[in-house]
Amino acid sequence: MKGPCGELFKLLEYISTQSLKTMFLSFTASWTASSPREVVSCIQECGRLGASLRDLELTGISLRNDSSVLPEGALEPIKRCTMLRTYKFSAATICLKDDNIRQLCEEGNWRHLEVLELPRCVGGEAPSFLGLITLAEHCPELRRISLCIDLTLQDYESLQAQKALSRFATNLTHLSILKAAADGMISSNPNAVMLAIGVSEFLDHWFPKLIPDNIVAPTADQEWWRGVKTMMAKFRQFREIMSKAVN
Fold first, then answer.
1. 242: domain range?
2. CATH code at position 26
3. What CA–CA distance (Å, rounded) separates 212 from 12?
4. What span, in angstroms and rounded, lies between the C-alpha atoms of 23 and 37?
5. Are 46 and 78 a contacting pair, CB within 8 Å?
6. What pLDDT shows up at residue 1?
7. pTM of the model
8. Interstrand relation of 144-148 and 215-216 (parallel, antiparallel or unpaired)
9. Number of domains the chain contains
10. How does pLDDT run across 108-164, given as a tens digit for each residue?
């Protein structure tokens, strides 16, 4: 369905079936002060109708100003969609921290999820790489993730500490990293080189099926991420050489 957010909400209210398999909503209304509430209302209706949903996509509205950001907990109703295979949400900029991600999936609500695409977050209201680990742990079928990551929340030491956590099997093969609104370039970070080493080791450790060439990075940080992907490839090449030498 495609149309103004408020009108789509009214249509959703009239739907009573619990047998929907696919839902696609595209919001076309101009972004107004009331639109965040209308988007949240549509999300709540999706949760109400979501017992049998396999594919859910909400698109169409982009960030215009600070008042157009959805609040923390706005995605909570989608926890009720326990049969989801694909969930794509790009209808608004959101606030989504590590704790919010854990609340969404820690009870196994999204255990069947294979594709997850979430939008940009505002600066200071985005998850760290710990949120990525949480998704991989509680959504074991995930192959593709698009997620905003706040790289200011970690440094080399914290990423090394996260490697010490008990590792579990993951199936992630594709990762798209979004940049939080108003974030600066990573290369301006005085510890950018050590952070790149930490991120490459972290991703290589937790996501052995993640193909470096399948990591999509923000345009402004392409060069920095190219270094991360190169190091990941070199780590794996070295392990392969050592494995052959031992055998």
1. 2-246
2. 3.80.10
3. 41
4. 20
5. yes
6. 85
7. 0.90
8. unpaired
9. 1
10. 999 999 999 998 888 788 999 999 999 999 999 999 999 999 988 889 999 999 888
